[in-house]
Design a protein that fits this description.
The structure is a single chain. By secondary structure, the chain is an alpha+beta fold. It has a single domain, classed as Beta-lactamase (3-Layer(aba) Sandwich), CATH 3.40.710. The protein contains 9 helices and 13 strands. The strands form 4 sheets. The chain has a 7-stranded mixed sheet, with helices on both faces. Strands 1-2 form a two-stranded antiparallel sheet. A two-stranded antiparallel ribbon has the order 6-9. Helix 3 crosses helix 5 and helix 3 packs antiparallel against helix 8. The longest helix is centred in the C-terminal third of the chain and has 15 residues.
């Protein structure tokens, strides 16, 4: 996965004095630190980070570099990307049209509302779009822990750890990933450079598409989970295409308000940032 910055030492020898200077090379020529994006997090009373990789210009635009690069968090439902890829590649699911029957149990969203969009029979495509946790828990059980671990290792996905149950490890802080690594995964998925067959990557690539207009195409997967301290955590990872150019992004946010509507905030913040950066008008 991509790592943007490194630290190096520069020794400067002056007359009668040697000075050791530590320089943090965290703003190389291809990286722009944009602190103006902080207002979108402040306005929603959350902490977080954002990174956008301009694939044509080989340039990063980042807010909160340290969190983006060095802090790892549970992937929550962004793991549905990898869960789907493994299921399709291994043949557990032939296509995104395969349906899992609802077991009749009523589930709830993280904010406590009845999960009406989950409590029914769903195909993989439908479950991906409504981020149905129970569906993907069954997918993980069908894959099995040994197979899942093998693919996490092959991908070098985040911390690569499954230290809890096979159907909860991406939700309970067992597995963790950085925003930097999320961008790397999105880039490889887009260009079909992951360790899975091309067909599986194409199906998931197609499922990622959420908005398709004459000006742009916006593809993403969201995530919503809880940190060990109870703080809700949100993700939005994916890419946006305008004028045949592609840009990859990862948004990560965290609230100290345990009842915060992260589901609403993450897309509001994402779209506000993208709009400030000049997207949605077909002029990029």
């Amino acid at each position: 996965m991509m790592h943007i910055c490194s630290k190096f030492r520069l020794f400067v020898v002056l007359p009668f004095l040697s000075i050791l200077i530590f320089i943090s090379a965290c703003t190389p020529n291809n990286t722009v630190i944009d602190n103006s994006l902080k207002k979108y997090f402040d306005d929603n009373h959350v902490e977080g980070c954002f990174g956008l990789w301009d694939n044509g210009q080989n340039r990063f635009t980042i807010y909160n570099l340290e969190r983006f690069r060095d802090s790892a968090y549970l992937p929550a439902s962004t793991f549905k990307v990898v869960n789907s890829l493994i299921a399709l590649h291994t043949g557990r699911f032939f296509s995104d049209t395969v349906v899992i029957k609802w077991d009749g149990k009523t589930r709830f969203y993280p904010n406590g509302d009845t999960a009406k969009l989950w409590n029914k029979d769903l195909s993989m495509k439908e479950a991906f779009n409504v981020s149905a946790v129970p569906f993907y828990q069954e997918v993980a059980r069908q894959i099995g822990k040994d197979t899942m671990q093998m693919w996490l290792d092959s991908l070098k996905y985040g911390s690569q750890k499954i230290t809890s149950a096979i159907d909860t490890f991406w939700l309970d802080n067992s597995l963790k990933i950085t925003a930097d690594e999320q961008v790397g995964l999105m880039k490889k998925l887009y260009f079909k450079q992951l360790v899975f067959n091309s067909r599986s990557q194409e199906i998931v690539h197609r499922m990622m598409l959420q908005e398709d207009s004459a000006q742009y195409k916006l593809s993403y997967k969201t995530g919503w989970g809880f940190l060990p301290n109870g703080n809700p955590l949100g993700w939005a990872v994916g890419w946006i295409e305008e004028n045949k150019h592609v840009y990859f992004f990862a948004l990560n946010l965290e609230s100290k308000d345990h009842k915060a509507d992260i589901g609403k905030m993450r897309l509001q913040i994402l779209k506000s940032i993208l709009k400030q950066l000049g997207f949605f008008e077909g002029k990029k």
